[in-house]
From TrEMBL:
<protein>
    <submittedName>
        <fullName>Cytochrome P450</fullName>
    </submittedName>
</protein>
<dbReference type="InterPro" id="IPR002397">
    <property type="entry name" value="Cyt_P450_B"/>
</dbReference>
<dbReference type="GO" id="GO:0005506">
    <property type="term" value="F:iron ion binding"/>
</dbReference>
<dbReference type="GO" id="GO:0004497">
    <property type="term" value="F:monooxygenase activity"/>
</dbReference>
<feature type="region of interest" description="Disordered">
    <location>
        <begin position="1"/>
        <end position="25"/>
    </location>
</feature>
<dbReference type="GO" id="GO:0016705">
    <property type="term" value="F:oxidoreductase activity, acting on paired donors, with incorporation or reduction of molecular oxygen"/>
</dbReference>
<dbReference type="InterPro" id="IPR001128">
    <property type="entry name" value="Cyt_P450"/>
</dbReference>
<dbReference type="GO" id="GO:0020037">
    <property type="term" value="F:heme binding"/>
</dbReference>
<dbReference type="Pfam" id="PF00067">
    <property type="entry name" value="p450"/>
</dbReference>
<comment type="similarity">
    <text>Belongs to the cytochrome P450 family.</text>
</comment>
<dbReference type="InterPro" id="IPR036396">
    <property type="entry name" value="Cyt_P450_sf"/>
</dbReference>
Length: 395
């Protein structure tokens, strides 16, 4: 069968891939990138970092763009930032952040309710406040970060590398503005994850110290890690909030389970709705040697895209991709990826999203709005604008 040709940029990612996936596990873009559309092939690629390298960008990306021992050392050093103790310590702060935001949105709202955009007014604002609170950054950065999210989104949509580089530069300046005072404060710097990163050592030899086995992180590595922890993921959290609220506004039975069920049940629903409509569309790899995938020969150096939105809707593992069934679909769920590059931030993302939903649903009903939502187009997915009506609950 010939490989279908399509350009994933600028298309609604589900409709762009649902039909292609039925024909073949792989598609090919006009520029020759192989697009992995099905679950089994995605697992094969994501778990085989030797044949499918993540070193796809000309910019330093830690840990995303690293491979092998260096990647493993970076993950070993940084994964504990998302450990259970850290998350338990953060949980009450996130509850406060969510409660304050929900209060602001419902302030003075009568029984007729108020329309909000679940992406911009709820998800993005919450994501920025939650991340700055977690990292110990000044609350005054909120507006700057929200402006940056918009600029970043527009730059990725434009596909213009110079614009993307300028936006990345702008973000690096924000990061350096929070690092500099900590460096000058030395031992007096506040105890938070940002300061902990400055003090972190990785199990990698220091070229400047012969025979060494460990070294501190370099400035550019710290900046890159913080860029990944904030820059990329603020947008994912905001878009997930849109997908979740649009879904919940149309499914009151799920609202009850999120509001009154266990944390685990709420977490399972928070995983399942983005499985159906995954806004974190894709990650890239490059083949390190000739390799056969789904009967196709991929040459060394050819680009491969893991299309998570399609992969998560693969009928071979999820027979009814649009049906909400968190328990049955949990093992097929690859919203956070798999293999050595699997998302380290998943515990934080889940905690943030569950906290936001539970704080909101405790005090408000979420209803569909008459204003139609606007879909996103690739490189991201989900909703660009997700209008829902919040109605204060009588208590
Ligand atoms: C709903 C929100 C999120 C989604 C859907 C998501 C999804 C993903 C996926 C699919 C990957 C795998 C990438 C690959 O295989 O190349 C990934 C990697 C990553 N995620 Fe997330 N993520 C989210 C939130 C977060 C958060 C909150 C953080 C940190 C604060 C984070 C940090 C990272 C990092 C650093 C990587 C790269 C890991 C590596 O290459 O070893 N993510 N994420």
């Amino acid at each position: 069968m010939s490989v279908p040709i399509f350009d994933p940029t600028g298309l609604e990612p589900r409709s762009a891939t649902d039909e292609l996936r039925a024909e073949s596990p792989l598609a090919r873009t006009p520029d020759g990138t192989w697009v992995v559309l099905r679950h089994a092939e995605a697992v094969r690629v994501a778990e085989d970092a030797e044949n499918f390298s993540s070193a796809v960008s000309r910019f330093l990306q830690v840990p995303n763009g690293r491979d092998g021992a260096e990647h493993a050392a970076m993950r070993t050093a940084t994964d504990p930032f998302f450990g259970p103790t850290e998350m338990a310590r953060l949980a009450p702060r996130l509850r406060r952040v969510a409660a304050v935001l929900v209060d602001e949105l419902l302030d003075g709202v009568g029984p007729e309710g108020t329309e909000v955009d679940a992406v911009a007014a709820l998800g993005a604002v919450f994501a920025v406040r939650a991340q700055t609170s977690w990292l110990g950054w000044p609350a005054a950065l909120e507006t700057e970060l929200l402006d940056w999210m918009v600029a970043n989104h527009e730059a990725s949509r434009s596909g213009d590398l110079a614009r993307t580089a300028a936006v990345a530069e702008r973000f690096d300046a924000i990061i350096r503005s929070v690092l500099a005072p900590r460096r000058s404060a030395g031992a007096e710097a506040p105890e938070d994850p940002t300061t902990a990163l400055l003090r972190l050592e990785v199990e990698l030899p220091d070229p400047a110290v012969p025979g060494s086995a460990r070294r501190p992180l370099r400035e550019e590595e710290i900046v890159s890690i913080l860029r990944n922890w904030t820059g990329g993921d603020l947008g994912s959290i905001a878009l997930c909030a849109g997908v979740l609220l649009m879904g919940l506004s149309r499914a009151p039975e799920l609202v009850e389970r999120v509001r009154d069920g266990s944390e685990a049940e709420a977490g399972a629903i928070v995983d399942e709705l983005p499985r159906i409509d995954d806004p974190f569309v894709a990650n890239r790899r490059v083949a390190t040697c000739p390799v056969t995938l789904a009967g196709r020969r991929i040459a060394a150096g050819e680009r491969v895209m893991l299309h998570w939105t399609s992969i998560n809707r693969d009928e071979l593992v999820v027979p009814a991709p649009d049906a909400v069934d968190p328990e049955a679909n949990a093992t097929a769920n690859l919203v956070y990826g798999t293999g050595p590059h699997v998302c380290p931030g998943r515990p934080l993302a889940t905690l943030e999203l569950v906290t936001l939903l539970r704080e909101l649903l405790a005090v408000a009903e979420v209803r569909p709005s008459d204003t139609p939502g606007e879909r996103e187009v690739a490189a991201v997915g989900g909703w660009a604008h997700a209008p829902v009506v919040l109605v204060p609950r009588r208590r």
